[in-house]
Design a protein that fits this description.
Blueprint (H helix, E strand, L loop, with lengths): L14 H7 L1 H14 L5 E3 L2 E7 H7 L5 H13 L3 E3 L4 H4 L1 E6 L22 E2 L8 H8 L5 H18 L2 E2 L2 H28 L2 E2 L8 H10 L4 H18 L2 E2 L2 H19 L17 H9 L4 H18 L6 H16 L5 H5 L20 H4 L6 H6 L6
Antiparallel strand pairs: 1-2, 2-4, 3-4, 5-6, 7-8
């Protein structure tokens, strides 16, 4: 009586065989034996050869995929239990094999030997080399000879270990070289693309629009402050001579650090006042200049004339630190001839004097000099600091 739990005829596996060669190997061997009982094999070279296709094997082995069948069949071959003459199962979807037992009597040959595993097939010799015809065919695909030669050892080793025989090793070698060459060209193209994106800083560099949007819209940084930071950024990285794919990222980080320090350094007192005779910039100003890689001694040299000019101008500002910081950054860029056109064009009047300060435009109305001091945004857009 057959149990209802067994909807189909079960596989018969020898327990002792499974203990000897492995359960998976014993399972596949049992299926191969069962499927070949109803087909006639081909006698060749002292063995009876059978050919089974995926349409036959898949229903008999529903618990395995094609890679499992390939793996276990190769394990049987490695253990010397079966002989294989087909390409890997996952590629060919067939197994051409013989049970590894020499026939003692010549069985009648019921069919013509099949191409690929009968007469005319050979194992690859250990010293195999592509012939001139094979090299000429490969050369038609613009594959360099050095690359072809590099593929030979791996090709021979692989097929020697597989134990498979074929009619034309040259054809198989051609296909392998084509695949490997296409893969190599793809890799080289990717590498070249990555390498080409490394660029050196140059005097006309500008941050991208995306970078500007991040700084102005997301970080709330004043556009004029960003513009003022470009010359010093270009100067610093030009002198270092480095290449990078991330100049925009570096610039965003550079400006964010300066902006945070700058906004913290602006005095909270909004009452406009004249510059004192003994005025000195706060330590935060020098810290910001150091972050911008501007020589502090250069800034100190500008200080006496800066104080004298603004003292004589009688103008009132709430943040002399801001004025001095912008003044130093402008003249630092001027000194290194990396001043941007927009900075020059935005000046209200006059031209920089040889000393770094101009005395044109000193006369401002009392009304304008005593109005409520400008906001940070307005201070940054006010280009009178460049005078």
């Amino acid at each position: 009586m057959t149990s209802s739990l067994l909807p189909e005829r079960p596989l018969l596996i020898s327990p002792s065989l499974a203990a000897t060669i492995g359960l998976e190997e014993a399972t596949l061997l049992s299926v191969l034996d069962d499927l070949t009982r109803c087909i006639t094999g081909v006698n060749s070279q002292g063995q009876v050869w059978y050919e089974l296709y995926a349409q036959q094997l898949a229903p008999a082995l529903p618990f395995w995929n094609e890679h499992d069948i390939q793996r276990v069949s190769q394990s049987l071959r490695a253990k010397g239990i079966v002989l294989l003459h087909s390409a890997p199962y996952a590629e060919s979807q067939q197994i051409i094999f013989a049970f590894n037992e020499r026939t003692t009597t010549a069985a009648p040959q019921t069919a013509a030997p099949r191409q690929g595993y009968t007469q005319g097939t050979t194992l690859i010799p250990p010293n195999w080399q592509p012939d001139s015809e094979t090299l000429a065919r490969i050369a038609q695909h613009n594959v360099p000879e050095y690359f072809i030669r590099e593929q030979v050892p791996e090709f021979v080793t692989f097929w020697r270990e597989s134990g498979e025989s074929h009619r034309s090793w040259g054809s198989k070698f051609l296909k392998q070289v084509q695949r490997n060459w296409a893969r190599q060209r793809s890799h080289d193209a990717w590498h070249d693309q990555q390498k080409d994106t490394d660029t050196q800083m140059h005097s006309s560099w500008q941050p991208s629009q995306d970078a500007m949007d991040i700084m102005t819209r997301q970080a709330g940084i004043n556009p004029s402050f960003i513009e003022d930071a470009i010359p010093e950024f270009i100067l610093y990285w030009s002198e270092r001579g480095e290449k990078s794919r991330t100049w925009n990222t570096k610039f965003i980080q550079h400006v964010r650090r300066q902006w945070a320090r700058f906004t913290a350094a602006v005095e909270n007192n909004t009452e406009p006042r004249p510059i004192p005779d003994n005025w000195q910039p706060g330590q935060d100003v020098f810290d910001i200049l150091a972050m911008a890689n501007i020589d502090v001694d250069f800034a100190r040299q500008l200080l006496p004339e800066f104080v004298m000019f603004w003292r004589d101008s009688n103008r009132l500002y709430a943040s002399w630190n801001t004025k001095f910081l912008q003044h130093v950054k402008y003249h630092w860029a001027q000194r290194h001839a990396i001043t941007r056109d927009s900075i020059t064009q935005d000046k209200h009047s006059g031209s920089p004097a040889h000393t770094g300060l101009t005395h044109e435009g000193q006369q401002a109305t009392a009304q304008s000099s005593r109005t409520k001091d400008l906001s940070i945004s307005q201070q940054l857009n006010d280009r009178s600091w460049a005078l």
